[in-house]
Inverse folding.
């Protein structure tokens, strides 16, 4: 690509912390929230917007790469990209630590009644002390659903740092592998749910994981248990979750994600004092954002140099439309 005209990069929102400036040194960069200027693009960098077959076809035969900051790529039609020989990458390592820490922060916030205690002091002294009675975590059982990068780190923090008993479920776990100290591997999801007073969900969103935590799964958990979700909103059936909280089956929930996002203002979850909510900011830290932004810039520049990006989600397509 060195002998070609400057490539065109179209992104829905600017890459922060200097990453866009790096791309401007090697390409013509257009910030285009509505995908109105995608024709002739070599690279698309989406935010929350969809990148479907129609967007790819509007970009045309020049499109070589779709680059998503972060892990989640549920807004990209990867089969459509592969059919068009378009490469898709993300930055899977970048948000791991920040997201794992945030999930643990939500767990501790709901267990220790941090938000309702803050409310009692700041705005409503009528909240009784009984409502602020917390749950000690030492020796309690935590179920980690999804043992990828983030799930593994959450399990490690809670097993080694908080000394909780951690059960880890993932259909891809090698049960013959020795687990880390304090963690037990299981392929019995129902058993994990029935034994866990705390459950944290770390699965990607796909056709098989939409409402993965539904009414049935929630009712398998013990009465007075806690649910944490820092993965994707639709992984949890919000209607079932609201009912479990209203009926007292769940003691509390900690949520960084919703379905839809942002949640509607009349969503009952926003009015419950036993629910801690954050606006999808688990990975939004100084190091997390830097790693995501520059992780995308690194791989786009590698592509322009004819090099294979390290985090291809459809590696079978390589080299695709790239000319060395």
């Amino acid at each position: 690509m060195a002998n070609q005209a400057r490539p065109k990069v179209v992104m829905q929102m600017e890459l922060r912390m200097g990453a866009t400036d790096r791309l401007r040194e090697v390409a013509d960069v257009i910030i285009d929230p509505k995908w109105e200027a995608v024709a002739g693009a070599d690279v698309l960098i989406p935010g929350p917007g969809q990148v479907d077959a129609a967007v790819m076809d509007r970009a045309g035969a020049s499109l070589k790469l779709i680059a998503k900051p972060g892990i989640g790529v549920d807004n990209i039609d990867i089969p459509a990209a592969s059919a068009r020989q378009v490469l898709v990458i993300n930055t899977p390592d970048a948000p791991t630590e920040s997201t794992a820490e945030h999930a643990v922060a939500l767990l501790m916030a709901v267990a220790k009644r941090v938000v309702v205690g803050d409310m009692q002091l700041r705005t409503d002294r009528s909240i009784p002390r009984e409502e602020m009675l917390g749950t000690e975590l030492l020796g309690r059982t935590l179920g980690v659903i999804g043992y990828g990068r983030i799930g593994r780190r959450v399990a490690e923090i809670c097993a080694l740092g908080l000394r909780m008993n951690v059960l880890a479920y993932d259909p891809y776990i090698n049960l013959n592998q020795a687990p880390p100290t304090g963690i037990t591997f299981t392929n019995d999801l129902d058993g994990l749910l029935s034994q866990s007073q705390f459950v944290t969900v770390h699965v990607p969103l796909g056709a098989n994981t939409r409402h993965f935590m539904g009414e049935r799964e929630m009712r398998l958990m013990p009465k007075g248990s806690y649910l944490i979700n820092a993965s994707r909103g639709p992984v949890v059936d919000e209607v079932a979750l609201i009912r479990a909280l209203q009926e007292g089956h769940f003691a509390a929930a900690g949520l960084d994600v919703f379905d839809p996002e942002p949640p509607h203002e009349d969503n009952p979850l926003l009015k419950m004092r036993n629910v801690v909510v954050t606006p999808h900011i688990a990975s939004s830290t100084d190091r997390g954002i830097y790693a995501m932004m520059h992780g995308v810039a690194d791989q786009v520049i590698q592509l322009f140099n004819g090099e294979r990006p390290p985090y291809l989600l459809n590696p079978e397509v390589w080299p695709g439309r790239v000319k060395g």
